[in-house]
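Lab notes, practical 5.
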Amino acid sequence: MRMLQSAFIPMLLAAVGLYALYKGVDVFPTFLRGAKSGLETAVGLLPTMVGMLTVVYMLRASGAIDLAAAALAPLLNLLGIPKECTALTLLKPISGGGGLALGSEIMQRCGPDSYAGRVAAVMLGSSETSFYTISVYSGHLGLNRLRYAVFAALCADLTAFAVSAAMVRLYFPYM
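Output from the prediction step:
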């Protein structure tokens, strides 16, 4: 089984090459055109990515995330989200890396088997970096009107966070 797993990617590449040969496609120039297109896309996304990373760094360094989390803690507590995870609910839609770092801090401070640690882990796996994803796609496609997309994404994130807390309570009731 392990040998089959190791050989899967080379076999897949060989199958694609043979199929292209069968269809009469010149593989290397086609590959180069695709690589050029991918590189142009990456260069086009770079300003958006730099901007988002700058915003995330500034929000974390200024303490704005912590202040907003303290203000929202009572409201999020009504949804079952522990106060330790409120900053995570604000940062995760903006930055996956920042959310992961904050989740790691929660697990170090509270413990990975604590209620807050488990809720943080489930939140990290069940939510999306909505602002980042929307900014990358809209920046690449040149979209300007994002009002409904942002609202829908934030509603989905809030739902994911609330359901994360509910599932941890359901599956780990004696915490």
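Observations recorded by the TA: The chain has a mean pLDDT of 87. The two ends are 40 Å apart (CA to CA).
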